[in-house]
Amino acid sequence: MDHDQNFKNLIVDYPHDAIALFAASAAADIDPDARITPIRQEQLKERLGDRFRELDVPLLVEWPDGRREAILFVIEEETDPSRFSIHRLAHYCLDLAAGFDTERVVPVVVFLHRGPFPRDLRLGSDSQDHLQFNFLSFSLAEEPAERHLDSPNVVARLNLLNMAYRPEAKVDIYEQAMRGLVMLEPDHGRRAKYADFIDMYAALDENEWAIYSARSAKEDAMAVSFRQKMEEEGLKKGLEKGLEKGLEKGLEKGLEKGLEQGRLEGAHDGAARVLLRLIALRFGDEASASVRSRVDAADLDEIMAWSDRILTVGSLEDVFR
Questions:
Q1: 0.85 exceeded by pTM
Q2: Among 62, 75, 53, 64, which Cα is nearest to 137's?
Q3: 211: how many CB neighbours lie within 10 A of its CB?
Q4: Based on the number of CB atoms within 10 Å of its own CB, is 304 exposed (0-12), middle (13-18) or buried (19 or more)?
Q5: Where are the domains of the chain?
Q6: Digit-coded pLDDT (tens) for 144-180
Q7: Within a 10 A sphere around the Cβ of 183, how many other Cβ atoms?
């Protein structure tokens, strides 16, 4: 698995969230509306399998009002801490600083696995240091996943399986990662791309996948049931509200509101109740049993036609003519 390449894609696609997670202490000084872009636009790729021309991800942060000088974030992924070279990182940061004529460079290293690594570099003599260099570090394997289960940061949610968690919680962690991807990423192409990312690092076995699939099926069924219940409640409340408003505002407005609600919800019984109430208001007393039976037996189109006609005719017989 090309971990380095996977993280390059992740950082380029979500630079704001990458800095917020991996360099939290420095990110606190960045305005929400600051512009963050990869220096090399050719790094943007559509699929995880596509390779970058360069294996570094320098991000340029610019303040829109120009009140601060731009700053460079250099985020590197290192799978094995024992392979990390602080000399190489220092050399690269110095090259960037010279190339962009700036001293505002923030080096960040993301370690995928646990292990010791050098935290600073000092060059000089026994009596004096002439060059000092250090960097921000973030160890995914040592970061508790439970801190980020409901995080609005998409990079954190996608990396839940790379964080520390109990083995028996793996399916729960996977579920939260996938739910975060769906909630936080509206683009279907990126959803597919980073569903692969989650699957790569989850590596669910057959039993774990069966548990997750069963949960998903149950959750989908509950969601359908919940939607149906809400629709039924909405129909009932909408009809009651329409009738109440209609009767309060008079015959004509009551007709408009009550029938409008009936049309929207397809409520046959509600439309019938409106018509019978209008008959009572228009002709002075409650409708007879035969009239109620006729209204109850009619289809919705007939009820609507009679309701429209009641405002203009002179007798009850003319309503049904």
A1: no
A2: 75
A3: 16
A4: middle
A5: 3-218, 231-319
A6: 999 999 999 999 999 999 999 999 999 999 999 999 9
A7: 12
